[in-house]
Design a protein that fits this description.
With 187 residues, the protein is α+β, with helices and mostly antiparallel strands. The chain is 44% helix and 23% strand. It has 7 helices and 8 strands; from the N terminus they run H-E-E-E-E-E-E-H-E-E-H-H-H-H-H. The strands form 2 sheets. Strands 1-8-3-6 form a 4-stranded antiparallel sheet. A 4-stranded antiparallel sheet has the order 2-7-4-5. A hairpin with a 5-residue loop joins strand 4 and strand 5. The radius of gyration is 17 Å and the shape is globular.
């Protein structure tokens, strides 16, 4: 699904994709299988050849919150935890049967230090993830649920083919009933 995570479409990231396809290990992941689990050590990043992954954060009460998605043609991983050798802050679960090419954090670190262009790519990746997170934070505080939903529709018109109503509600931090009301209003 295009336009969900804008950074993945940048031309500079073709080198990162090539890295995973050339040096990464091919793996088929079944629907509902985990790529990373919150609270456990994580050490891999991956390029998604086919499929869809959801990022889920479980709060102290045991409630799950959808906090992000990665689609085919994008990258998947708990980037900060992976590179810092820490426990994952989120669980990353395949929402469909998926095919990835994954590599350990150590190999990604080597890739980023290979040359100046790759060092710049690592900086751009960190900046893009920061910008994406910052925009999401501002949206949550400054936009209404209807505006958030409309932004999602404009950004990725076909998202409903991949994400359930309940998941959309969790991602937008509203109830499924609110999403139903918004959809009726928009139609």
């Amino acid at each position: 699904m295009k336009n969900f995570n804008h950074y993945a479409e940048r031309e500079e990231f073709s080198a990162f994709k090539e890295f995973f396809l050339k040096y990464g290990q091919y793996k088929e992941i079944k629907k509902k299988e985990y790529f990373a689990q919150q609270g456990f050590q994580t050490g891999n990043g991956a390029y998604i050849q086919e499929g869809l992954f959801r990022y889920v954060c479980t709060d102290d009460r045991g409630c799950e919150h959808i906090v992000g998605y990665s689609f085919a043609g994008e990258y998947v991983g708990d980037y900060p935890a992976c590179l810092r050798r820490e426990k994952a802050m989120v669980s990353i679960q395949a929402a469909t049967n998926s095919i990835i090419y994954y590599a350990p954090a150590e190999e990604m670190r080597k890739f980023f230090t290979t040359n100046e262009a790759n060092q710049q790519l690592e900086r751009i990746l960190a900046e893009e993830l920061f910008v994406q997170t910052y925009k999401r934070l501002l949206d949550v505080y400054c936009k209404t649920p209807t505006e958030l939903y409309w932004d999602l529709v404009c950004r990725s018109p076909d998202f409903q083919n991949y994400i359930t109503l309940r998941e959309v509600a969790s991602f937008l931090r509203v109830t499924p009933e609110t999403i139903s009301h918004i959809r009726k209003k928009i139609e």
